[in-house]
Amino acid sequence: MRQGLTFKRCTDGKCGARVPDKRCPKCGGSSYSWYFMVDVAPVGAPRRQRKKGGFATKAEALAAMALLQGSIFDGTHVAPHRQTVGGYLTGWLAGMRGEYRPGTHDAARLHIEVYIVPRIGDVPLQSLSAAGCKALYAELGESGRVRGGGGLGRKTVHNVHRTLSRALNDAVADQLIPRNPAAKAHKAPESPEQPRWRAEQLRAFYASVADDRLFALWRLAGGTGLRRGELAGLRWRDVDLDTGRIAAVQQHAKGGGGVQAGRLKGKRGRSVELDERTVADLRAHRKRQAAEQLAWPGEWGNTDDLVFCHEDGRPLHPDSITKTFKRRVRAAGLAPLTPHGLRHTHASLMLEAGVHLKVVQERLGHSSISVTGDIYSHVAANMQEDAAVRVAAIVDGGGPT
User: Does residue 276 share a domain with residue 213?
Assistant: First the structure.
């Protein structure tokens, strides 16, 4: 990188002439400010001069020039531009269509078009600050609801923050801004204790739906912790009943006005072991499904070899799984729960049974063991008394309990 230079410019009126000494040779004025000019192009490349002024002293101008040169040298320099937050987010959203699952992309579009752009879309991207992001979140918390008035919940505001921060991270990577102003502008709300059933409640539910054509689905949900989209997208070719193992590699998710098959949350598939009872239930389900296929000759709609579908083979919508499950729960007279609650039930029962947290993480498909620990910290807290009793039994009783 070439060496830069500093100089003075007259600030009397609109003169602006260079001042080589103490007085302006053009107007005779004695007021001036310091500027620097530096060629930021690599040696041998066409010149790209950068100039900036308004410094009170030569030392300030030199320091600013050194900062610019250093940022160019280490790759953190950002060239000035006039792109707005709205303009950038619109282009970013279009470019992310193939990167995110359909439901995630739809949620990001909602956040950008409904909550972010109407409020800060005209702000220059390079002028967006952490304070500006915090003000956006505060406004959404007070008056962000589109219908009915009032503010958005903390979780919704945090989801908006995650979309904005994710987009700004990409802007940093593209050298449009030097740092992400939203990175630390919002804290995630504390996770409430997740609704779940005790073992006896799950057992009572299984008994109440024993004759349900989707019994194997409920059994699989409670016995593996699969998400409802993973259950809806599970294919027979991903199920090995001989080894008692399934491969969760795709899901059916809402998006684009319908339901689409796509990659899993977290982008990685996983192998999930099955217990013998669940394997037997899946074998029975496959026989029942084969009979249903014979009952719909020429009209069978299960073209993707799905494990769970309607009687005529049409794929199950994730929302229909939720609605059916809730009806079954009400009919059984049990505490209200969602299919995702079966996932929490499975995780909690594993932890209470002493299963290692790493195994729970891998079984549920969480991105890291810390995510699992954060979600189920309440279970660990409830197990502390039992841990204390066990340790005391080892010490005082001379052996493990």
Answer: yes
